[in-house]
């Protein structure tokens, strides 16, 4: 599937969210093979439905994660998710009628959008969490040092 490479996906450092990114991209890759072969039927319908559900679940989990961290700019990030859901729903509403080239173009657009979203928006919470964990780690170390010098 050299026209639909999945390597080089940025890792956010959260197992659940990283796995979801991979699952979503794998669904997209499978849909791509169906579109290339011009196979429209129950299997493709099922795949696209799973892709849609996977994206929506992922966005909910990610938004919950960002809310727990009280991440700034969360509304902007949520708006990006809503925009993607809209693009995906448009694709779902049209792919049966549209011609193969148009469908492939749209899927490639969705994939590029998703990859770029991870690189730009998801990276922000990944770095925020990393800095937060480092600060917690440092303060634990400092407290341990204070304890050892006062004894
Ligand atoms: Fe994400
Ligand atoms: Fe996101």
**What class do helices, strands and sheet pairing give?**
mainly alpha
Bound molecule types: fe (ii) ion
Order of helices and strands: HHHH
Report the span from N to C terminus.
63 Å
Q: What is the residue-mean pLDDT, rounded to a whole number?
A: 93
Outline the biggest β-sheet: none
What is the CATH class designation? Mainly Alpha
Which strand-content bin applies to the residues?
under 5%
* Low-pLDDT runs: none
Task: State the fourth-level CATH superfamily.
Answer: Hemerythrin-like
Helix fraction, binned, reads over 70%
Report the CATH topology name: Four Helix Bundle (Hemerythrin (Met), subunit A)
Oligomer description: single chain
Total domains: 1
CATH-level-2 architecture: Up-down Bundle
Short description:
The chain has 151 residues and is mainly alpha-helical. The chain has 4 helices and no strands.
